[in-house]
Automatic annotation (TrEMBL):
The gene is psd. The active site is at D86, H142, S227. Its cofactor is pyruvate. Keywords: Cell membrane, Decarboxylase, Lipid biosynthesis, Lipid metabolism, Lyase, Membrane, Phospholipid biosynthesis, Phospholipid metabolism, Pyruvate, Zymogen. The modification Pyruvic acid (Ser) is found at S227. This is Phosphatidylserine decarboxylase proenzyme. It comes from Cohnella luojiensis.
Length: 263
């Protein structure tokens, strides 16, 4: 199939109701029989899950599975910023005058990503990570640092795919898709966790009850399929790990860098 035709079909299928229909099936008991096939197809390490495949009530129940205790150790280094998810790094770097540069060949502005939030001025010279969750990955989202949730925002939008095709062939997917933003204030500054919806993601959900105060690694939210997290740190507050780059895989709880007091 040629790329323009695939782009057009993706455009047509990116309506929210398509994902809602998919989500409705994934939450039904009828989907339960697909769990073993789905796990085998995506080579999911089912031995990490807290329950056996037979114990999950639906595909959605399996998508949003928790892991056995201790499977994802949280880096305990004081001041560490950790990955909130299991993911592939599809972009990372210094934010330059409010621009996230060359995320799969496209540039994004903090203004569009954060929907013009008054808080965007805090991130114009900060640091960003774009973390892509494939269907294989664990889909729960955890806090990258300790701190207090000071604001949340739901930004309506489309549900374009956020895989390689979506990020390279569709226009500005990360800022056009539905997003749920959590702002976390810590002792050093503020972190924004931008949860980006995607094709076949029926919704992004906060855990209940939603916490106000977070420890590093605490559960924050979950995707009901694979998607992307954009993690932002305030200007001058992060010393990123020098040995991580685009294309690398990270696990939830793994150190991305060190939070530091601004010069």
């Amino acid at each position: 199939m040629n790329r323009p035709l695939l782009r057009m079909m993706t455009e047509l299928s990116s309506r929210k109701f398509v994902s809602q229909l998919t989500g409705r099936f994934a939450k039904s008991s009828l989907s339960r029989r697909w769990i073993p096939r789905f796990a085998a197809m995506y080579k999911i390490p089912v031995e990490e899950a807290e329950k056996t495949l037979e114990e999950y009530r639906s595909l959605n129940d399996f998508f949003t599975r928790r892991l056995k205790p201790g499977i994802r150790p949280i880096d305990a280094t004081a001041g560490a910023l950790v990955s909130p998810v299991d993911a592939k790094i599809t972009g990372c770097g210094v934010i330059e005058d409010g621009m996230l540069l060359q995320v799969k060949g496209q540039d994004y502005t903090i203004e569009e990503l954060l929907n013009g939030s008054p808080r965007m001025s805090q991130y114009l010279q900060g640091y960003f990570w774009v973390l892509y969750l494939s269907p294989t990955d664990y889909h729960r989202i955890h806090s990258p640092c300790e701190g207090e949730i000071v604001e949340t925002e739901h930004i309506p939008g489309r549900v374009y795919p956020v895989n390689e095709f979506g990020l390279t062939s569709m226009k500005r997917v990360l800022s056009r898709n539905e997003r749920l933003v959590t702002y976390i204030r810590n002792d050093i500054g503020e972190v924004a966790v931008v949860k980006v919806g995607a094709l076949n993601v029926s919704s992004i959900k906060y855990v209940e009850p939603m916490p106000k105060l977070l420890e590093r690694g605490d559960e924050l939210a979950y995707f009901e399929f694979g998607s992307t997290i954009v993690l932002l740190t305030e200007d001058g507050t992060l010393e990123p790990r020098s040995n991580l780059k685009t294309g690398d895989k990270v696990r939830m709880g793994e150190k991305l860098g060190m939070l530091k007091v601004r010069n």
